[in-house]
Amino acid sequence: MKKSIYSLVLADDVVAQIDRMAYAQGTSRSNLINQILAEQLSLSTPEMRMKDIFGTMEQMLEETFQILSQPSDSMLQLRSPLRFKYNPTIRYQVELNREASEAVGVLRISMRSTSRQLLDLLDGFFDLWIQLEQALTAPKLGHPIRYRKETGRLSREIYHPANLPAYSGEDVGNAITAYIRLADSAMKQYFALAGSPRETQLAAVSRLLSEALRNPETIII
Predict the structure, then answer these.
(1) Which end of the chain is more exposed for a tag (fewer CB within 10 A), N or C?
(2) Are 136 and 182 in contact (CB under 8 A)?
(3) CB of 108 within 8 A of CB of 95?
(4) Ramachandran region of residue 142, left (φ > 0), alpha (ψ -120 to 50) or beta?
(5) Cα dihedral 27, 32, 35, 39 sign
(6) Whole-angstrom distance, CA of residue 91 vs CA of residue 67
(7) What is the pTM of this model?
(8) CB of 10 within 8 A of CB of 36?
(9) Can you list the domains of the chain with their CATH numbers?
(10) 76: left (phi > 0), else alpha (psi -120 to 50), else beta?
């Protein structure tokens, strides 16, 4: 949604109340006024779209993931325990793009640890997951998937649903939720097979991804 600068004459009491609401919601005065006017005119703003997506995700994930405090209205952070030595946790961070683009946003998966064994295992999973997604998921999207990988961290772009002709914020929220659950399950399966031959790990993770992609209810992002 294109934005321009306009001058408005508002009562001081109104501005003071707007500022209090904006502070409570973690947004700016301009964004809040824009949202209020858009709601009155039945228009959709990027903030409203992100609210729909994150609201759907929080409702579906709150029982199985720990939802962390959010640094901004364009970001959602989650944490999932990993049953392995040292009791590590995996952090998932979804950041949505405010403006229309090829990608809806980006998902970041990370683990904070000083254990070389844990980080090597996590990096091994990332390499395997990228390999399988480029082979199995990317053809259904119709283009390669862009990643950025560092030690203990993986960023993966999230795309518009490939197999839905029309979709809502709720659809996108459902799709991201399903993807996080799938990646989390695949990672835990991989760690459960630590010490097994890589072919065994590959087969287990590949089976999870293949089954998800064959499910007609899966929204491919």
Answers:
(1) N
(2) no
(3) yes
(4) left
(5) positive
(6) 10
(7) 0.81
(8) no
(9) 1-43 (1.10.1220), 46-214 (3.30.1460)
(10) beta
Distance CA 191, CA 169 (A): 33
Query: d(Cα 207, Cα 186) in Å, to the nearest integer?
Result: 9
Buried b (16+ CB within 10 A) or exposed e, 33-58: bbbeebeeeeeebbbbbbebbbebbb
Mean pLDDT of the chain: 90
Both tokens of 131, joined, read: 């390999």
Compute the distance between CA of residue 43 and CA of residue 39 in angstroms, rounded to an integer: 6
Per residue in 44-56, pLDDT (tens digit) is 677 888 889 999 9
CA distance 109 to 184: 10
Query: pLDDT tens-digit profile of 145-203?
Result: 999 999 999 999 999 998 888 888 999 999 999 999 999 999 999 999 998 999 999 99
